[in-house]
Design goal:
By secondary structure, the chain is an alpha/beta fold. It has 7 helices and 11 strands. Strands 8-7-4-9-10-11 form a 6-stranded mixed sheet, with helices on both faces.
């Protein structure tokens, strides 16, 4: 949310013609020299838009496929680069954690305030903050977090979503096909919280309910949704909104 202010801040929103009474440090000298008349800068308050990530670690919601066993750790494909990208184990937990880490880096490098919440073995909450210290704090949590939670994402959203303020962006990373969490997210939007879903397509990882009805519910609610399937390139998957196309078959490697 951008807000104009009569005060001088570090955020310049534009320029306008000089008005008698403008202080000398409001003058935009480059535009003044180019136009031949006095031009003043306009300012705005720092944008208000915290970002919160809710990572679903409810044990019963996750799915995975068999993975390589008995290999030397140094030879595991997900520890080496193939085709210039990391190969992840076929697990919604691993994909969810990797997505959370990637988004944390993205928003914090953009100097946004980012908070984090997850119900794993314990409630993990990090209040919104900026900078490298916040990224380090989040990566330390994500490095050891396990899907051993006993609280469904719908209940977590209902409890903790009530504390979110207007103009907050809430990113929910989950494989859950329980439509209740979509209902909660829709309710939060009526309070000015902007929800975004990253839906892990559990059936492409292993035995799991069909994710397509959940995606349809998100789209019918007007909530932006990104679907991530087993084997997807995360940069591409998170760079496009889902069109609602059904799941494709992904071979287990």
């Amino acid at each position: 949310m951008h807000r104009r202010t009569p005060y001088i801040t570090s955020s310049v929103s534009g320029i306008r013609d000089y008005v008698p009474g403008d202080s000398i440090n409001r003058i935009h000298w480059a535009s003044t020299a180019r136009t031949g008349r006095l031009i003043s800068k306009e300012f705005e308050l720092d944008p208000l838009a915290d970002v919160w990530m809710f990572l679903d670690m409810y044990e019963d919601a996750h799915a995975e496929a068999p993975w390589i066993e008995g290999e030397d750790e140094a030879e595991l494909p997900w520890l080496t680069r193939r085709a210039e990208r990391m190969e992840l184990p076929p697990s919604t937990v691993e994909y969810g954690v990797t997505i959370a880490a990637s988004l944390a880096q993205h928003f914090l490098q953009a100097d946004r305030e980012l908070g984090f919440l997850s119900y794993a073995e314990e409630r993990e909450v990090v209040q919104p903050d900026r900078g490298e210290r916040q990224l380090t704090r989040l990566l330390e949590i994500l490095a050891v977090i396990q899907a051993r939670g006993r609280l469904p994402i719908a209940e977590a959203l209902a409890m903790d979503g009530a504390a979110l303020t207007r103009h907050t962006t809430l990113i929910v990373i989950t494989p859950s096909t329980d439509s209740r969490w979509v209902t909660v997210l829709r309710g939060l939007r009526s309070r000015g919280v902007h929800g975004v879903a990253v839906l892990l397509a559990g059936r492409t990882f292993g035995p799991a309910p069909d994710w397509a009805p959940t995606l349809a519910d998100l789209q019918a609610s007007g909530l932006p949704a990104y679907v991530v399937k087993n084997g997807d390139d995360l940069t591409e998957a998170l760079g496009r909104l889902s069109s609602g196309v059904g799941p494709r078959a992904v071979p287990v490697r």
